[in-house]
Design brief:
9 strands, Jelly Rolls, five-stranded antiparallel sheet
Length: 128
């Protein structure tokens, strides 16, 4: 799922697709960086208690902009990895890759050269 959330736009457009087995999904994201409390990224959704996110969050200052790879598993959320994101960096690319029970989160400034943010084992079902 791909979408943008902000306080003044709480029901963002989304692209949703059912996917089975191993996969790689990536997205080119362009955001102007002129809205505070804005979140954009990728979501692997099983249900409200089990999902994975790769999200660029823009807070109210450049020191609160970050890219976070997070996991909700059995109702317990935890950040797998997070980095400070350079303010005004656009466009950028995000990628989630699932192989078996492992999900790898990566990011890129050009869509060709990727930096791994983190990896995590998951209990998501084969079809999400």
């Amino acid at each position: 799922m791909l979408g943008t959330y902000s306080y003044d736009f709480p029901d963002p457009p989304r692209f949703m697709q059912t996917i089975t087995g191993d996969f790689t999904v990536s997205a080119k994201i362009h955001t102007e960086g002129d809205r505070y409390f804005n979140s954009t990224g990728l979501l692997l959704w099983s249900d409200a208690d089990n999902y994975i996110t790769l999200t660029r969050y823009q807070g109210n200052s450049s020191s609160s902009d970050n890219l976070t790879f997070g996991k909700m598993q059995n109702g317990v959320y935890g950040a797998v990895a997070s980095i400070l994101w350079p303010s005004g960096t656009a466009p950028f690319y995000l990628k989630l890759q699932r192989t078996g029970s492992q999900v790898i989160a990566s990011y890129s400034s050009d869509g060709a050269s990727w930096t791994q943010l983190g990896a995590s084992n998951t209990t998501l079902p084969g079809t999400i």
